[in-house]
Amino acid sequence: MADCLDTRKKSKCSSRTNRGPKLRTWFWCFVIKFLGLPCIFSKCLSVDITVASYPAGDINVLYGQPLEMFCVAENYSSSDLEFTLSGKRLESEIVNSSTIRLYIDKPEKQVNTYYCKNTKTNKNCINRVLVDSPPPDVTDFKCISNNLESLNCSWTKPESLSAITYNLTFAVNGNFVTPPCTHNNTKKDLTNTRFCVWDSNSTPRYRQQADVLFFTLISCNVFGCNSQNYSIDHFSIVRPDPPFNLKDVKIGTHSVVLKWWIPNNIVDFLHCGIDHKIEYQIAKIDNTTFFHEVNASSLPAKNRTYKFQLTNLPYSHMQYEVRIYIKSKKAPDSKEFWSDFSYKVFYTDSERPRRPPDTTAGAFDRAVFVDRRVIYIYWKQLEEYEEAGANFTYKVLVSQDNRTQTLFPDKNKSLSYVMLNSSLSSMDVTIWSFNQIGSSLNSSHLYIPSEKNIRSLGLTSFTKLAYENGTYELAWGGNKRIDNYTLFWCQHNSTNICIGQMNFTVLDPTKSRYVIDLPRDQRYQFAISANNGTTTSGIVWAKCDISKEGFVMYRFNMHLKYDAPGKSFVNLRWEMECVLQDGIITGYNISYCPIVQTSSYCDKSFGSKYVYISNPKQMNQTIENLLPFRTYQFTIAINTIYGQKTVENATAVITTSEDTPTSPVNVVISDVRNDSVVLSWDPPLQRNGNIGKYVIYNNKNEFYVDKVSGTDISRRKVILTGLQGFSNYSFTVQACNIPIGLCSKESRPEYVRTRIGAPSRLKAPALENNPDKLKWEPPEIPGGTVDRYQIKIIKDDNPPEIINTTNLSYTLTHCEGVVSTETYQVRAVNLDEDLYHGVIGNAVVTERSSDNIEEFPGPWSEPSTVACRSRDGLTMIIIFMAVFALVGMGYGSIKIYKKYRKMEDIKPVLPYGLGEPEKDRTKFPYPEWNPTNKDEKPSSDEMLLLPNSKTNTVSSTETKEKDDNCAASDHTDSTALSDSSAGQVDRQISTSDDSSNSSLHLEAEVDKGDESTIVQEDSSNEDSESSRESSPYFSDKNFKKNPTSGYVLPVVNPVSGYVQSAPAPVKTSPMPQMPNPQPTTSSYVMAGLPPPLFTTRPNPAPSSGYVMPEDVQAKSMSSFPKLTPTAPKEMGPESLPTLPTLPPPVKPSADSSYIQLQSLDSLPSLKPSVRNTVPLKPPASSGYVSQGDVVINKHLNHMLSAGQLAEESAILDPTMSPDAYCRFSWSTDPANDNLHSLLAESPNRNVSKN
Predict the structure, then answer these.
(1) Global confidence as pTM
(2) Which keywords describe this protein according to UniProt (predicted)?
(3) CB-based contacts of 100: which residues, under 8 Å, 6+ apart?
(4) Which end of the chain is more exposed for a tag (fewer CB within 10 A), N or C?
């Protein structure tokens, strides 16, 4: 039990307000005020605020008792005190000079705040006053047991101003169980319901088997407690759980056997037993909220398992839902005591359909051709609940012309008809209902007459008038020779075929009008047939479908057409298939409006317009003043004597052609930065076509192109970048229609100045002296107001020093404290102190969010450097440089002078025997030819020094390179000749002979200068290879091997002492050797002779290679070709032939064809002092080539413009100096020789020709 007694604390001056007279209380406090502790009344809740109230804090007053309060203020007058409630002053009485009293005899129930106020200091002392009664009685206490598993008792808290606590307990065998249940408020802020719950696990435990429950409810507040007792019949408040494991045991065509189980707690503890409630619902027939209730009173009260046979189910093969409820027999028949339901869904078994479909005379339609017709046979379908089985359909048996065929309708189309191709004769039709069990026992019959009899009953026009309330007025042309009419109707569709249910009725033959009411939520189409005995006209559909009261006219075949539209006009035409009597149509009304995108709704911003045509025979109309490239919807209505009628499908949607768009609108500049802005706009109000792009202009100059989709009508937004800070821009936007290439006018200009940004880069500062000063130019792009400039000074490798200035120059001292260099850089700086960051114009701007000044420095300029070395150091550097320059110039002058003197003493020296002997000309075929004469040709000896290859003219560049190579030789000083030297040159001993002990190996360099040179060199390489084979000087057959030693023996003419020419090598090949058409070049130049004239001549015939002394003159004369006057080809030194590339030296071998040049002066018998034209004989002891043996020089081409005998042998003087040539090498080392030295044997030496 909760302690519900009054536990209010007692204050120093308080007493029970319900004890003793009021005066006693007031008097006792007054005595304490003046005789006790007066200072305690100057504090409000122990806080000194110059005013206090008594009693302090919360005041609880029992309803019916008076309210008494005191207000005290030390050092203030009682006139300065007052009591207030909700801002209103309350009447009070003065107790003394510092105290007032509030007294209310019988206050109302309330919870209010009272203020004791000091008007001087405006301080208040607050008291919360509660006036209420003890808790009232609970009137709706109730309990319910959930399946005897838990007990829930609940009640509603009565209205009360004070807080109430509840304790609930129940008694067992006259003793109350503990602990009590305190109320549990689940939704404290939303409901006043309180409840307590006991179950088998709670303390105290729920007593499930008790027949009666005794409860005590105690409610308490600050004013007292209230106790109430309740007794409840336990089993009358039980709400069972639903039955479980409900199943169908046996299903028939119209019945089912059900079985279910009862919860265990109900069977074990509920002694009174249960009641059942059974309901069922038929799917697709009954309303979803309606159930058929079954009498279940025959079921026993206390069973664990139940069976029940549900009979008299109306339809077979139908879905049913069964629900079963239970409740305690003692519980009232209230929804809260019935359990939840268990349910079962099942289908009853199938059976044959109980009846066939209904049909009637004339229930067919036809399409007639020349010798056949297509028949549509109709009937009225059975309802779905009559199908009685799965796979339901209809079976149609057609008998015609002694033939019978069975047809079934197409389930994918409709079960109302079948279609067949037939002849024009009559037929009998029998129709059954059919499912998987079988056919209906009965059948329907339809007779279709021949086509000749059908035409005799043809009907005239059939007209329908439809009203908005679902009423239809039908009229047709009558026929007196019939028995009756059959009127058909079904739901409307675009074809004259009834897809859904076909309905019909039979009318009297005297009628020609009929009114029928049908549900207005559907549209219907009508047909009629005329019947006379077994003859019938078949179905005739209503074509002139006219509707009244604004209802859409269906089946009124009217077509609205149009010609090609223009930019602002369109020509409409219409046609009608239905012919009405004159006077029914009084005119036409055309309405049109622009539609929203692809919908059929009119654009409300334009509204609809109308054109009325009063002439009913006019069938066309031109509509003008349309907007370009707008989609319009045109609808035509007919004015009839029944009013204006809207025709179904008499609508046309037309789009006018394109035109120039209007200007874009709502151009807005936003998000302005120092290098970009955001420009947005709406498309033109009149697009007049597909806009493919928007062109943005700045001050009439194209700035940006925004390409868009032709169907895009959204607001556009682009970011324009690449702008300059603190610069003015004027943007306009133009819309362009791409297909027709027309653009709108530019929109209204929008002006803006961009935000302050960084300035552009400055030029390098200029340095000035006397006085030292820096100067620079302002930035080309300010980007702002250029508030200051910064100078960065870097002295040597020290950290930079930054100096600020507002001028375009700065005075300073160069090189102050600098050892090496001093660098200067400048930049401009903008300061953003503006409230809007410098942005002005027609732009959406935001104010500065902080007071911080933003700084925008530009990039540093190119550096200007000052060399800061001291003047003394610079002077010394200049002196040293001058001294070194003078020394170098002197040394160079001396070297040049010595070189010049050395070159001045150079005289050309030809090898002995190279020139023509002065006195002896007998060896020449033509003694009159003088080598010293420029007009005469060189001698045979000189010709033999030329390359034995075809001549080729070389470029001056190549000749120059070869001359340079020649000049680089060790023999240059003794072999360099003037180009003008044509006469006889005195022979002198070369000064370089003694030192010429090393071989000079020449390699041809590939000139990469141009393509022609490369080709020429390739050709030269090819000729060089062929030259080695064709020239006797590259062939090892020119020299015979000593049979004893195996070394090569030279072939020497015994008379002249010259080396005989070797026969040209002859290759044994199955194919003849083709002459090489490419000329071979050579860089050998004959010293002391003018440039020879070269002509192309055929290769010489092969010879034996031996020249006998007696045959030289005659052979030369006989084989010399006939000379004819030939224009000499002018050639200079640059056109001399070049030498083919020689292979590098290889290890000597017996068969090596490499020819090495060696100094002839190395032979003891060929000293410079000896000038003997007859070669010396080598020692005959061994036949070996010694270190001093002579090696034959490389052959030269013996081509001459005057001609040379093809068989003439090449003869070299072994005593001539090799210094007369530029390109050759020699060696005194026999290990490098690959040819035997020349053996000066007896002139009569016999040499084998093998």
Answers:
(1) 0.45
(2) ATP-binding, Membrane, Nucleotide-binding, Receptor, Transmembrane, Transmembrane helix
(3) 70, 71, 78, 81, 82, 83, 92, 93, 94
(4) C
pLDDT of residue 259: 96
Phi, psi of 1082 (to 5 degrees): -145, 145
Tell me what pLDDT residue 913 has.
Answer: 60
Mean pLDDT of 1076-1084: 40
Angle at 1227 between CA 1224 and CA 1232, to 5 degrees: 105
Whether 388 and 313 have beta carbons less than 8 Å apart is answered as: no
Beta strands 123-132 and 59-62: pairing type? parallel
What are the beta bridge partners of residue 665? 682
CA dihedral (447, 449, 454, 456) positive or negative? negative
| Euclidean distance between CA atoms 562 and 651, whole angstroms | 11
Q: Which residues of 100-112 are buried (b: 16+ CB within 10 A; e: fewer)?
A: bbbeeeeeeeeee
399 three-class SS: strand
Tokens for 476, please give them.
């047709």
Q: Which two tokens stand for residue 1189?
A: 């043996």
Locus of tokens 């007049």: 688
**526 C-beta neighbours (distance < 10 Å), count:** 25
Helix/strand/coil for 544: strand
CA distance 381 to 357: 6
pLDDT band of residue 400 (cuts 50, 70, 90) is very high
**Which residue's structure tokens are 């036949």?**
1183
| pLDDT-derived band at 454, boundaries 50, 70, 90 | confident
DSSP 191-247: --EEEEEEETTSSSPP-SS-SEEEEEEEEEETTEEEEEEEEEEGGGSEEPPPPEEEE
pLDDT digits (tens, 9 = 90+) for 954-981: 344 443 444 444 333 343 333 333 333 3
Asked which of 308-317, 378-387, 472-481 is least confident by mean pLDDT, the reply is 472-481
Q: Which of 147, 145, 144, 146 has the alpha carbon at shortest distance from 263?
A: 147
CA separation for the pair 827, 762 (Å, rounded): 6
Q: 222 phi and psi, to 5 degrees?
A: -70, -15
The pLDDT-based confidence of 1102 (bands split at 50, 70, 90) is very low
The span from the CA of 335 to the CA of 341, in Å, is 12
CA angle 678, 682, 687 (to 5 degrees): 140
**What DSSP character marks residue 61?**
E
Residue 247 tokens read as 């199943």
Token pair 């029940």 in the structure block, residue: 308
The region, left, alpha or beta by phi > 0 then psi within -120 to 50, assigned to residue 406 is beta
**pLDDT tens sequence across 613-638:** 998 888 999 999 998 888 899 999 88
> Looking at 409-413, 662-666, 1160-1164, which range is the least confident one?
1160-1164
Round the CA-based radius of gyration of the chain to a whole number and report it: 68
CA–CA distance, 370 with 451 (Å, rounded to integer)? 11
Token pair recorded at residue 1133: 């030194």
Q: What is the mean pLDDT of the chain?
A: 74
Residue 746 has pLDDT above 60, yes or no: yes
Q: In whole angstroms, what is the distance from residue 930 CA to residue 174 CA?
A: 173
Cβ-contact 740, 710 below 8 angstroms: no
Using CA atoms in the order 622, 626, 629, 634, what is the torsion angle rounded to 10 degrees? -60
Residue pLDDT, tens place only, 1207-1220: 444 444 445 444 44
Asked if 464 and 544 touch (Cβ cutoff 8 Å), the reply is: yes
Give yes or no for a contact between 376 and 414, defined as CB atoms under 8 angstroms apart: no
Helix axes 956-967, 1011-1030, angle to 10 degrees: 60
Q: State which H helix or E strand residue 904 sits in.
A: helix 871-904
Sole residue written with tokens 């004469």: 933
Amino acid at site 473: E
Strand order, beta sheet including 99-104: 52-54, 67-72, 99-104, 93-96
* CA separation, residue 76 to residues 43, 51, 1208 (Å): 13, 9, 162
793 sits in which H/E element: strand 788-795
